[in-house]
Write a structure and sequence with these properties.
Number of strands: 10
Shape: globular
Helix content: 40-55%
Largest sheet: 6 strands, mixed
Strand order of the largest sheet: 1-2-3-5-7-10
């Protein structure tokens, strides 16, 4: 992946893993238009790069993401308008529809829009001590867009409780609600994330891509519509070179050699 210059995120790639770091620590990595634009650009570049097999999203400093940058939203920071591409809704859609797995490395608090990014990721691993929540109601706002991704993980009653009371959950409570896959001590966070990314990069890249595309396509369909679609997607998957290699490797009791085709 070609290195690109960013101002409020950092992007680096190694071993098939693209690492995106929200890099606005003096504002707890709050999301503004420039950060949204840069994340969209970096994610699109990673998806287009065949060497990238999965993406890790994290935050610089002691926070994952404190949510929307209220200073920019209110126009109080005096900064000139940034040249942006897309908005936060576009970013959530890009995450949800990504054909490469996104792992949220939740190193600290993930609030509001930051929690939306966690919920839109395919995996989320949190450090014990992190808080996750929807405090927007406390400043006269409401977590409008992120409720669309939160409701895919959290029960209706619990989600309403979170949003209307402005609740902040600790990492273990967030895992119980389905917002995190796993909670570990802070010093074990990198090892836990590496375990997931190593597993992903060992799989057939085309099977992962086709699987995620099918998952996104069927996500909101009823059963009668989803099953015929998935039958067609399975036929497409069976026609790949990697499927043939995987089945042959199983019969020959050896590790498959993926070609990505």
């Amino acid at each position: 992946m070609t290195a690109r210059a960013y101002t409020v995120i950092q992007a680096s790639s190694a071993g098939g893993v693209l690492r995106l770091t929200l890099n606005n620590p003096w504002r707890k990595n709050a999301i503004g238009p420039a950060m949204v634009s840069e994340l969209l650009d970096a994610l699109a570049a990673g998806i287009a790069d065949e060497a990238v097999r999965c993406v890790v999203l994290t935050g610089a400093g002691d926070a994952f993401c404190a949510g929307g940058d209220f200073a920019q939203i209110a126009g109080a920071d005096g900064a000139p308008p940034a040249e942006v591409k897309g908005d936060y809704a576009d970013l959530l859609l890009a995450f949800a529809n990504s054909s490469k797995p996104i792992v949220a490395r939740v190193n600290g608090h993930a609030l509001g829009g930051g929690l939306g990014l966690v919920a839109a990721s395919h995996f989320a691993i949190g450090a014990r001590g992190a808080k996750l929540g929807t405090p927007e109601i406390n400043v006269g706002l409401f977590p409008m867009m992120i409720m669309a991704v939160l409701q895919r993980h959290v029960s209706r009653r619990k989600l309403l409780e979170m949003m209307l009371l402005g609740q902040r959950l600790d990492a273990d409570e967030a895992a119980q609600c389905g917002l995190l896959n796993k909670v570990v001590e802070p010093e074990a966070l990198d090892a836990a994330v590496d375990e997931v990314t190593s597993a992903i990069t060992s799989k057939s890249p085309i099977a992962v891509r086709l699987g995620l595309e099918a998952f996104a396509a069927q996500d909101d369909l009823d059963l009668e519509s989803a099953l015929p679609l998935l039958r067609e997607r399975l036929a497409g998957c069976l026609a790949t070179d990697d499927a043939r290699e995987g089945l042959m490797a199983f019969l020959e009791k050896r590790k498959p050699r993926w070609s990505g085709k």
